[in-house]
Write a structure and sequence with these properties.
There is one protein chain. It is built from seven helices and 19 strands. The strands form five sheets. Strands 9, 12, 15, 16, 17, 18 and 19 form a seven-stranded mixed β-sheet that branches. It has a four-stranded antiparallel β-sheet with strand order 1-8-6-3, with no helix packed on it. Strands 5-4-2-7 form a four-stranded antiparallel β-sheet, with no helix packed on it. A hairpin with a 2-residue loop joins strand 18 and strand 19. It is elongated and about 110 Å long.
């Protein structure tokens, strides 16, 4: 009986994907539940499993093809079995004829002695198979080796030439590009900056990191401090946690924070749900889990949708300052950057402080410049006085 393998439902609003890789070939056996193909969508990659055991009789699509939900991609014959390969019979080696040394002329024997040629390996061309001097000389001279010619010779690039390579964009990269352009074309996007003295945050982490990890099983990072401060600022400035829908503003009084994560396939933004209800340990565990699953390509669609605000940390790559682009339909995104010791003037004295530039990109259609500046100042004040965040150790 033939069983059809079709593109499964990929998730809400996703109607097609790209066939990224076949795990099986025509004629191979496959068990029910075994992975037959990988599909790439604009949000996540999905593994397609066989619904029955049997032998693959057809692969209807090629790697790189666009496939729609419900489209036939492979066929399996559940009644077929994989043919056993015919036994391989080892060929019996045929011994080369052995030539007697007595068949060589005296001159040939002398030449063989001088050149180290074994006369038993030389075929004679003289009368009755006699080995001549020329036979020995020919045997002692290695045959010329023809240079190997590649099937498709690689182009020779002259010094100073400009090398080019054309590679098709992955579906995820295409979607990222489309959304970034959409954000710039749709929103009235502006960015405001401030700087934060992280002396007290770093001091708390230094004093509490061991007991925090021992008690909670996870390290105490900077993201929990920034997430806590961001949620507080979002509560103080509701427009930054809102969304524009037509001529209406949808205010959201829940706080699902997107955390930008870099993966080999591009940037993804998994969502930390109800961040306002999480402790420092809960935030650190949630972010650690999301980042790990993102890099292992194990995120589901539910992990990537519905965020109300995004935090991105370019500082892990060494960025000193940037203007993050909105993650539509969100109207605000916070950019963190590298912590850098700088000389600061405090109370008339020059002191060294660990400083970070922070940036807020926002949609000016519903967020005024004054509110954006005050939003960043709110975060700055909380991070410079982290006791007010009511740490839970």
């Amino acid at each position: 009986m033939n069983v059809d393998i079709k593109v499964p439902i990929l998730g809400e609003s996703i109607v097609e994907g790209t066939l990224a890789r076949w795990h099986k070939k025509v004629g191979e056996a496959i068990n029910a539940g075994e992975i037959i193909a990988d599909l790439e969508t604009d949000k996540v990659n999905i593994e397609v499993s066989a619904s029955a055991s049997g032998v693959i009789t057809a692969l209807h699509k090629h790697e790189g093809d666009t496939v729609a939900v419900g489209e036939l991609i492979a066929s399996i014959d559940t009644a077929a079995t994989v043919a056993s390969p015919a036994p391989v019979v080892a060929a019996t080696p045929v011994a080369a004829p052995v030539t007697s040394e007595a068949q060589a002329t005296p001159v040939a024997r002398n030449v063989a002695a001088d050149t180290g040629v074994d006369l038993r390996t030389v075929s004679g061309s003289g009368p009755d198979g006699r080995i001549t001097k020329n036979d020995v000389i020919k045997a002692s001279t290695p045959a010329p080796v023809a240079p190997a010619t590649p099937a498709t010779p690689a182009p020779v690039v002259a010094s100073g030439s400009r090398r080019e390579e054309r590679v098709k964009m992955s579906r995820r990269r295409q979607t990222i590009a489309t959304r970034l352009v959409q954000a710039q074309q749709t929103a009235a996007m502006l960015t405001t900056f401030n700087e934060v003295d992280l002396t007290r945050v770093m001091d708390i982490r230094k004093r509490k990191k061991d007991s925090f990890k021992e008690h909670n099983g996870v390290g105490l990072g900077f993201m929990s401090f920034f997430t806590k401060a961001t949620v507080s600022a979002l509560k103080a400035f509701p427009a930054v946690n809102a969304e524009i829908q037509g001529d209406e503003i949808l205010y959201k009084y829940y706080y699902d924070i997107g955390i930008a994560v870099s993966t080999p396939d591009g940037l993804v933004v998994p969502v930390l749900r109800d961040a306002d209800n999480l402790s420092f340990a809960g935030i650190e565990k949630g972010i650690e889990s999301l980042a790990k699953r993102a890099r292992e390509n194990k995120l589901g669609l539910a992990d990537l949708t519905g965020g109300t605000f995004t935090i991105t940390n370019g500082g892990v790559f060494g960025s000193m300052m940037s203007t993050p682009i909105l993650n539509m339909p969100q109207v605000g995104i916070l950019g963190m950057h590298k912590i850098q010791e700088r000389a600061m003037v405090m109370n008339g004295e020059i002191v060294i402080r660990p400083m970070m530039y922070i940036a807020l990109s926002y949609d000016h259609r519903i967020i005024d410049g004054a509110a954006a500046v005050r939003f960043l100042v709110h975060i700055k004040d909380l991070l410079e006085d982290p006791d007010s965040l009511l740490l839970e150790f």
